[in-house]
Amino acid sequence: MLNVKSLSLGPVQTNCYIVSNKQKECLIFDPGEESERIIKEVRKSNLNPLAIFLTHTHFDHIGAVDDIRKTFNLPLFVHEKEVSWLSDPSKNGSAKYAELPNYIVGLPEKEHIIRNEQIFEIKDFIFKAVFTPGHSPGSVSYIFENDGFAIVGDTLFEGSIGRTDLIGGSMEVLLKSIHEKLLILPEDTIIYPGHGDYTTPGVEMEMNPFLHGF
């Protein structure tokens, strides 16, 4: 049984997820900001981090990547379509906001670029990376089917969906991703979004106004 710890970080309260097992190993998803809080949580819980995974590379999801990666010597996994966004503030969105620094993150090693939908088996963490573009062209959702949850970034929220007015965004593509990749999951699957509270496919199919009439 895996444990999911959520930390809401940074100026827009982005959810970072620390997924751990009984052996005190963990994976870190979307370390968006406040690296000191993430490091403190990992050390307080006596966890051994194995890797960082990104759902996408908007600035609020990548701000702590380099600090976390260097502190724990971790590989970074990211979709191939957004590798260049890590070091390009005009793409990752930080250039739009004068009050923010330009977010420039070091590129991952070539072998850690996600090019195809695939099953990851890292120790006893078994999950599938599925492509859910629309909010951004390289958005990835991570489905932990055996454990009944999914980490979906800014694709689907409680009662809402991701914005599509940023670079590479598309409402049509986003809705297709949600219906074909997320709403097909068991209705009680816990959906962990990039912001806000968790939800389930069952709740969203019934209550989410953006999904009706697709």
Task: Describe this protein with a few key phrases.
214 residues, alpha/beta, Metallo-beta-lactamase, Chain A, five-stranded mixed beta sheet, 13 strands, 29% strand, hydrolase
What would you say this structure looks like, in words?
This protein is an alpha/beta fold and 214 residues long. The protein has a single domain (3-211), classed as 4-Layer Sandwich (Metallo-beta-lactamase, Chain A), CATH 3.60.15.10. The chain has helices spanning 35-44, 65-72, 89-92, 171-182, 201-207, and strands at residues 3-9, 14-20, 25-29, 48-53, 76-79, 113-114, 118-122, 125-131, 140-144, 149-153, 156-157, 160-161, 190-193.
Tell me briefly what this model is.
The chain is an alpha/beta fold and 214 residues long. It has five helices and 13 strands. It has a single domain (3-211), classed as Metallo-beta-lactamase, Chain A, CATH 3.60.15.10.
Topology:
Blueprint: E1 3-9, E2 14-20, E3 25-29, H1 35-44, E4 48-53, H2 65-72, E5 76-79, H3 89-92, E6 113-114, E7 118-122, E8 125-131, E9 140-144, E10 149-153, E11 156-157, E12 160-161, H4 171-182, E13 190-193, H5 201-207
Parallel strand pairs: 3-4, 4-5, 5-6, 10-13
Antiparallel strand pairs: 1-2, 2-3, 7-8, 8-9, 9-10, 11-12
